[in-house]
Sequence to fold (271 residues):
Amino acid sequence: MKRSFFAWPYVVWMIVFTVLPLLFVAYYGFTDATGALSLDNWREFFTSGDLKTLWLSVRLALECTAVCLVVGYPAAAFLAGKDMSRHKTLFVLILLPMWMNFLLRTYAMRTMLQDNGLINAFFEAIGIGRKQMLYTEGAVLLGMVYNYLPFMILPIYTCMKKMDRRVVEAAEDLGANPLQVFCKVSLPLSVPGIVSGITMVFMPAVTTFAISKLLGGGMTFLIGDMIENMFMTLKNWQYGSTISMILLVVIIASVALLRKVDPDNQGGGLW
Fold:
């Protein structure tokens, strides 16, 4: 039996649940309410204030990705340097949030950020006083980082764990100091993990709507909220499909740009 035979279930799955929905989105995106071909929705998006909503979503997603990278890379490097057979608790702490439902994690963050929450209680105890944290842009960003940070740590950790330590030892034997070893050896070799982590964080961050709704309280309206509103509330499938296609183009462009950094997935693409 040919091995290609076993790929057919996956092919059928992709056609039914990926290709066909995308074709429906494309159909509604280029038609009006009567079913006639139209570009009115596209013109409306680029001439209205909705373009600012897209930019806000991209900006917050980039900020979330940057914070996750700055926080996640040292954490991944620390874990990669440990013997996991002796430090399993550290790895479990990284995975533990992912074992809970996404909405439960977001509700937990909302509870901590509210006026009488744990963080404000701590601020009041040390004399800073209560702060308005919930329903702000900062709360949305914090919720994104909290939910997507493991998706940055795990790919980088996996990449660094597979790194040949003999290369690092060779650089040290040749007189390279720790900073040079990091810049010339460790960082370039971990580029595939960085690219994967950025992709896995940016894509869900730029499309999120549950986090902005729960932690932003409608004060931070993102492109995901707009799409959800068009489909579920206003029943304007044409405009919602147009926005979805524009967002899809943004995601594809960002992934293509990232792949140029390390096209062969071999590391060293930053230099």
User: Anything to note?
Assistant: The two ends are 46 Å apart (CA to CA). The chain has one domain: 52-261. The mean pLDDT is 89. Residues 52-261 form a domain with the MetI-like fold fold (CATH 1.10.3720.10).
